Amino acid sequence: MGSMPKILIIEDTDEVLSALYKYFRQKNYDVISASNGLDGLKAIETEQESLDLVITDLVLPNISGVAVISIVKKKFPNIPVIAITGWGEHPEALAKEAKANLVMEKPFKLNELEKAVRELLKA
Amino acid sequence: MGPPIIGVSENIRRVRELIEHVAHTGLNTVILGESGVGKEVVAQNLYQLSPRLGKPFVKINCAALPEGLLESELFGYERGAFTGAEQKRKGKFQLAHGGVLLLDEIGDMSLALQAKLLHVLQSGEFAPLGSEKDFKTDTWVIAATNHDLKQDIGEGKFREDLYYRLNIITIFISPLRERLEDIPPLIDYYLNEYAPQLKGEHLVTRARELIEQLKSYHWPGNVRELQNVLKRMLVLGDPEKIVHELLSGSLTNSRSTNEQRTGHPESGGRLIPSVIELDKENMIGNSSFSLKSIKKKAVDKVEKEVIAYILEKTDWNRSKASKILKVSYKTLLNKITELAITPPSGKNIND
């Protein structure tokens, strides 16, 4: 891992995506983003091992976050994945089955998410 | 096996790209689109690119069979499981083992059977009727439907948990009228395929000259209807006449809708003028005019009224309202924003 950890954020709500993007940039992360599962998956395939961590929403157009998690865990088991999910949504259980490293329910505090990212990167 | 996916539109490019990226995963998939857009073709393409190629590809139409029969078709039964079950019979889940099971028209499956399907998807096991033993199944479940499943969930016709369990991957195919640029390559492809079979090679050039006119039709039956029109041209030998009938027929249809509206204003027709401005000339044939856009407007209108009513009754307690409406809290918040439902002024909306 270089000096700046590289993370991918997949989220289909513009406001949430840009808030996360800005926050992690400020915290000195190298951030790439995608607004649906297919674009997210393509970014993962391009970056491969140079990617340090993935944060994904669960309900996404075309390829869901649940699918992204299971594909990453199969192809790149060393890349940690954090799932973020709306309150009371069913896919939470699916994210755990797909072996997300962490499932965080919205709303969460950005600094809590960043702390979780730091801890997963240390491990 | 299945034909290729023909088209140059953004939607079709995206569909092909999705297939390439997910075919190896075997993750539950839902294919959405109107009748005749080619949902089964997409399923076959997924299968062909998957490591399951060569294993069974089993299809079942969930709308074609009554509930009890569909259940025994899916899971099979033991001898003596019910009157008339003289032989044991394997279900589709067993027949599709190692391969693909395409559940067509999943939106028409009864709630009771949806619960059983959910159980199979969660546990990876099923029991034939009358059997005490569970069988393990390794089947790639691909479901297809022309329903708006989100709407079905709202109406209590489709289980939300099954929806999320199935929609790990979602592939949406647009109706043909929303991707007119796909019509010329589709026509080329099918003329080449059908002309030798139907001995209509001499008609191909004449049929091709009608492409522009065929692009002006709204294709309610999508690619399947286009295939039938092309076959008719090659068999009957008068392409110009067939196109003429097609286009004039569609005009007659819209005229009769108009008559119905003015003729019976009381029979549920009152909504129509409020969601479309039929009185304005040029409305029909306008590019923004489509059944889909009208359906959305009508549904939005009804949803807005119902949600506003429930919010009023619950004193804008949105978590209570979301429970009554049986939608998630997030969905309700999205609806409130999307449909611009506003609380009475001065009301505190923190719940």
Please give the number of β-strands of chain A. 5
Helix content of chain B: 40-55%
The largest interface is:
A-B, 21 and 21 residues
Number of helices of chain A: 5
Unreliable stretches of chain A (pLDDT < 50, length at least 5) are none
CATH superfamily of the largest domain in chain B: P-loop containing nucleotide triphosphate hydrolases
Which CATH class of chain A is shown? Alpha Beta
User: Helix/strand-derived class of chain B?
Assistant: alpha/beta
* CA-based gyration radius of chain B: 24 Å
CATH architecture descriptor text of chain A:
3-Layer(aba) Sandwich
Q: What string, H for helix and E for strand, traces the elements of chain A in order?
A: EHEHEHEHEH
Question: Major sheet of chain B: size, sense and barrel closure?
Answer: 5 strands, parallel
Low-confidence stretches of chain B: 251-270, 277-282
Number of strands of chain B: 9
Give the end-to-end Cα distance of chain B, rounded to a whole number of Å: 57 Å
CATH architecture of the largest domain in chain B: 3-Layer(aba) Sandwich
Note the topology:
The complex is a heterodimer of chains A (123) and B (351).
Chain A: E1 6-10, H1 14-26, E2 30-34, H2 37-47, E3 53-57, H3 65-75, E4 81-85, H4 91-97, E5 102-105, H5 110-122
Parallel strand pairs in A: 1-2, 1-3, 3-4, 4-5
Chain B: H1 10-22, E1 29-32, H2 39-49, E2 57-61, H3 67-75, E3 76-77, E4 89-90, H4 92-95, E5 100-104, H5 111-123, E6 125-126, E7 135-136, E8 140-145, H6 149-154, H7 160-166, E9 169-172, H8 183-198, H9 204-208, H10 211-215, H11 222-236, H12 239-263, H13 271-275, H14 291-313, H15 318-325, H16 329-338
